[in-house]
Design brief:
Elements: H1 2-5, H2 9-20, H3 33-40, H4 68-83, H5 89-96, H6 98-103, E1 120-123, E2 144-149, E3 152-156, E4 159-160
Antiparallel strand pairs: 1-2, 2-3, 3-4
Helix pairs in contact: 4-5
Amino acid sequence: VAKLRGESPEDAASDLVIEDGTRVGVAYFLMSEENVKREVQLPWVSFGSDEAAPAPEGVFLKANSHPRAYGNFARVLAKYVREDKAISLSEAVRKLSAFPADTLSLKDRGRLKPGYYADVVVFDPKTIKDHATYEKPHQLATGVLDVLVNGQFALKDGQPTSERPGQFVHGRAWKGAGGGCRARASDWSWSK
């Protein structure tokens, strides 16, 4: 953008914010792919995303989110497990579920165990793939068959359901909005 405008990147970014009057997003490329592959293999690295997950329809199509909004976790499984063989499937699943739940002290989550919340993603390891790009970020990943949240289908046979079983989940640092009260995840739920 700076090159097109004939100005420095700093000036272009500032001018875009001023001209648009809203939030302007940017993407930074800070690591080489080889470095990412090496980091994925480290035993203390888990996976997460700081990107929102908007529906690829309506008003959400007016803004371009980062490609990870639609393919972050599918990319781990397709690229770093299946294609690059950087980590095993079982290690990737652990780094996507139990490890972050343990790290964040999320009680009764991250494992398929009796008494735990039934948060389950059923995917085909041979076909799971991310498709979102910077040019076309609103591309859903493929290869995910079912998603159960708290034991209810949010995605069934690749299609979204009308169920909204998600809950707010708080880790050990949560003190409550009022200062001292502690709330359990089951005290908060998404409205339909």
